[in-house]
Amino acid sequence: MKAKTENKSFIRAWKLNMRALKLLHGEMPGWFTATIINGLLAAAAPYAAIWFSARLIAELCGGRDVNVLTRYVILILASSALLMLLKAMASRRVEAEDETKYFGMRNILIKKMLSMDFVDADSQHVFDLRSGIEQNENYSGLGLSRVFEIFQVSVEAGFRIIGGAALTVSLFASRIPDNSKGLIMLNSPIAAAIMLALLIGAAIAAPACYNRADRFWSDYAPTATLGNRIFSFFGFIARLPNRRADMRMYAQQQNVCGPYLKNTNMFGVRSGLAKDAKGKMGAFYVLSACIAVLLNGAVYLFVCLKAYGGAFGLGEVTQYIGAITALFGGLNQFIEQLGKLKVNAAFLEKVGELLDMPNTMYKGSLTTEKRSDRKYSVEFRNVSFKYPGNDAYALKNMNIKFRVGSRLAVVGMNGSGKTTFIKLLCRLYDPTEGEILLNGIDIRKYRYDEYMNIFSVVFQDFKLFALPLGQNVATSSTYDEKRVTDCLIKAGFGERLKTLEKGLDTYLYKQLDKDGVEMSGGEEQKIAIARALYKDAPFIVLDEPTAALDPVAEAEIYEKFNDIAGDKTAIYISHRLSSCKFCDEIAVFDGGRMIQFGTHEELLADEGGKYHELWYAQAQYYAEQKKRAAEMEQMV
Asked: What's the rounded mean pLDDT across residues 544-571?
């Protein structure tokens, strides 16, 4: 039973690694071609030198013909020079292709992340899975990166085995003359079988010990993953621009980061990994090396005894020792890779789990009507939603219909369901219950990509790229400069644009350009709004993108945006009510429900309502702020 289980385990490991190999080859075929050529040349170079050197030594011990010796010297130099040149060219190509390995691996994961249902991509499970995959690769190259190593070493080992076997066959065919009675037994097939058994046994035993030692690295993967996660956060936190002031003011590097890293050091000299490295793991590595040395001794003894008995000359001794040593090295390497292949399977299963995650969201087939008059109506009918793995409703029994070209404000305290409402509207999630209708048709029936194109959204956690300003607005490397400029002016960025020497080619931030420009929070908001305008979608949504600004600045941005939204249907999400009083209708959220709906005047008139309560609570706060500011001015 154990043998069958082991076989099944190896077959499973083989399939996982072959699948990964196929995926990586699809991303970067050039690396695999270059690696095969490099492996062939790496194996051929020493064998060419071994064979020609053996002929040269044989001639020196025999006829000593100057012409023959000269020919062999020229052949050795020419073949070595040619193979070294080709090997250098191939190695350089492999080094160049190596630069694409990281991006090839990332592309496989990124393509999956971008293609999977957003509900899964946004889940904690996928976050943990993706983090685990990356941490395993950072820790000891386990996962997709180990597949590169296994392939590269196996290719060279395979060529070494083929070359070594070709140069070694005649060793067993060469016979000691009958007059060497003491050594005649070496002609026996039994002697050859014993030598082969030693060779194969050592080739299995040495890498088996090595792989057993190597398994300690994978055994420590869970602990190391945690250690890497801690180090990647606390070890580089001081490099984050938004952390620098806090780090310095509160001495967080000395008082928090340093002690935490010291107390959770998974890789220090007193760690479990270090103890095993000095114990069992180290012992297995040493045993592997000892077996290799003992085999080399047996090879030397066998070859030298046959040469002493007269089976061949000194030149062949050089050939056979070199060839068998290389052959054993190739076998050793190849079997080591089989062990690594099996160990790596557990980590490729994590990759497979991510890549095999099914998309269950129906993508629809109806074409979204492209209306020049932008006459789109959206209605929520009894919509409720629970986040995956959560029994509580984030949104409950939502019923609302947007009037075309209207301005809708969605207000409420943090956690009241506002952002969930927007994610459902944009179909990042599907309702748990109820339906959302576009022009009377369930949005799930529309083509997913076309439906999303009718929305421009500025999320509260929007991101700008460290790329030129124009590309940030267009979210593309190619764009209409006049249109981008117009959108920036409409968004209130016109005056700032005039101060930029490179205009739309100005890089934001300094990550990619030392002359990059840092933007203030308000300027970033305006660029994000310009980006939403550039898309020119019939629905525009601002999901608290100005939450970091003061209420006055937020109101100014919203009022300006209201003027430029034109005939678009605009939705404003905010927990600050003063920013939304210019809207046609206001929906008040609380505890995952829409508890009020109406105009600013209507809601304010309801003295027992939530909107009235929030409005006057915030108005009192702002009045107090204004009063304190006035008092400060008088004191000055």
From this structure: 70
